Amino acid sequence: MLSNTAISKLKADKPCVYVLLSLLDGNRYIGSTNNIIRRIKEHSNGKVISTKRRRPLKLYAYQVFNDLATARLLEGKYKKSRGAFDKAIRDKKLIIIR
Questions:
Q1: 71 pLDDT higher than 60
Q2: For residue 3, what pLDDT is reported?
Q3: Which of 26, 58, 75, 78 gives the lowest tally of CB atoms within 10 Å of its CB?
Q4: How many C-beta neighbours within 10 Å does residue 6 have?
Q5: Contact criterion met (CB below 8 Å) for 19 and 61
């Protein structure tokens, strides 16, 4: 799911919004967490109901914040508005994983 290069760029202890891409159906999942590495492992191991049947998953993008409240706020905004999500990508606020 994640290469060593991608993992080394992540800040595990920082709040963030993350975007997972289902390699099964092509749909995306947007979430927020205060530990992205732990959360991605939970998704990969099938411990998250929303993504359990959509595995395998790939980390597509993430955005780091200073506090979890802001991350949760932006998570909701990205889920509600495709335009806000696309703008965050265009403005390079969301870091795309290649």
A1: yes
A2: 54
A3: 26
A4: 16
A5: yes
Q: Tell me the pairing of strands 95-96 and 57-64.
A: antiparallel
The identity of residue 33, as a single letter, is T
Taken in order of first residue, the domains within the chain and their CATH numbers are 4-96 (3.40.1440)
Task: Provide the pLDDT for residue 6.
Answer: 59
Whole-angstrom Cα distance, residue 55 to residue 92? 27
Give the whole-angstrom CA distance, residue 80 versus residue 64. 19
User: What angle is formed at CA 96 by the lines to CA 58 and CA 59, rounded to 5 degrees?
Assistant: 15
- The DSSP code for 66 is S
Residue bearing tokens 């590495």: 37
Rg (CA), the chain: 12
Tell me which amino acid residue 34 is.
N
